[in-house]
Amino acid sequence: MHSQLVIGIAIGYFKNGKKEQEIEDIFSEDPNLPNVHRTTIKNWILKYQKEGAVQRVKQPGRPNKFSEKEQHHIIVTAKRNRFSSMNTIINETGLQMHHQTLQSTLKNNGLYSCKVVHTQYVSPLNRRQRRIWFKLYGDWTNIEWRKVLFSDENAFKLQKAENNVRVIREKRQGYNPAFTKPRFKATQTKIHVWGIISKKGVGPLVFLDSTVTKDTYMELLDAIVIDYIMELEDYFHHPFVWQHDNAPAHDSVQIVGREYKTETVIGWFQEVGIQLLKHPGNSPDLNPIENLWDIIDNQLRKEYHTTNVSLVKCRIEKIWYSIPRETVLKLLDSMPKRAKELKVNKFYPINY
Q1: Which of 54, 86, 115 is the endpoint of a domain?
Q2: Is 140 domain-assigned?
Q3: What is the rounded radius of gyration, in angstroms, for the C-alpha atoms of the chain?
Q4: Where are any strands of DSSP class E within the chain?
Q5: 274: containing domain
Q6: What is the pLDDT of residues 14-58, one digit of tens each?
Q7: Claim to verify: residue 133 and residue 111 sit in the same structural domain
Q8: 231 has which bridge partners?
Q9: Are residues 111 and 131 in the same domain?
Q10: Residue 138 sits in the same domain as residue 16
């Protein structure tokens, strides 16, 4: 249920010549306005054209416990304490009420108590990098994205903490940066893996002793990547683009031999003639392989409650190679939509 102010804003845009889809886009891009579906906007416009106004008919029912002034005070207090518990918000209002009364009052004003979305921390530098990424690849179609080989490393935690934090917010605002919490790296027992996906499906999966270092990455390039890319190019008869994130190992320098020659990762790709896709830092939402890590992680949490590393490794490998090619293609084809959502969300993390 939307306020008369929101409806009036939509009608105002309609009077200025905007169509339903354009009004919906304006509402979705403005953080101060709620997201409204174009069907709802269309109904408002039809009612306005028929009756000359859009006003709610007062429905019979139980009268509100609080006056309009008190309800306004409750809403303002909740918005100032979005990450607080219901008890805290009730105490801050200074009014006597039950939890259900607070929830009902919030719901009637378009606010809900929801589980907080934990996203990767995006610094101002990362946002600039993501903006550059959009300028470079924002107009790519499925055809271009299917020519990209996505690689990534992941660490599966044998014990995973649950997320019980909640926030007061409007619907479809889960990834609004004002209502999310950044996720930082933690020290836990982990199983490190590195893998590749392409339009042929999942590629090689490698277990590592620790996070990827410059030496480890150069070994992977020489032992696995070059042969895998040559195999794909022979199969599909066109070159591929290689994607990796901005991890330090991917831009580092390696000492080669007694002569202390330096060999950079970028130089390696230039030497073998493989184009690199520029990937912004701290942007797992722009790498579809992350969805496959989630698939594996969810399966492990359902099936395994053990700290036996060997057993978990076997299960990770079995799940990885059982992922169908159609799943990978669907993720590759999601990249144009991700690019669009990235711009709409002003280059903050998006839902992926």
Answers
A1: 115
A2: yes
A3: 25
A4: 112-115, 117-120, 148-157, 166-169, 180-183, 190-198, 201-208, 241-243, 253-256, 261-264, 275-277
A5: 120-163+185-344
A6: 888 988 888 888 888 887 788 888 888 888 888 888 887 776 655
A7: no
A8: none
A9: no
A10: no
Q: Which residue has the tokens 């709620």?
A: 34
Residue 67, SS3 per DSSP: coil
Residue 100: inside a domain: yes
CA-to-CA dists, residue 120 to 188, 276, 284, angstroms: 18, 23, 8
- Helices 325-332 & 289-303 angle (0-180, nearest 10): 130
pLDDT in tens, 194-250: 999 999 999 999 999 888 888 888 899 999 999 999 999 999 999 999 998 766 666
Distance CA 79, CA 3 (A): 16
Nearest to 151, CA basis, from 190, 194, 114, 180: 194
Cα–Cα distance for residue pair 264/309, rounded to 1 Å: 33
Q: Name residue, tokens 């499906």.
A: 201
Which among 289, 311, 277 has a CA at the least distance from the CA of 144? 277
What is the pTM for the complete model shown? 0.65
Pick the closest to residue 285 from 136, 146, 152, 114 (CA basis).
152
Q: Which two tokens stand for residue 51?
A: 């009756």
Kindly state the tokens that stand for 112.
């809900």
Other beta carbons less than 10 A from residue 53's beta carbon: 11
Three-state SS for 26?
A: helix
Same domain, residue pair 25 and 148: no
Both tokens of 14, joined, read: 């309609």
Provide the token pair at 11: 């009608």
Give the pLDDT score at 291. 95
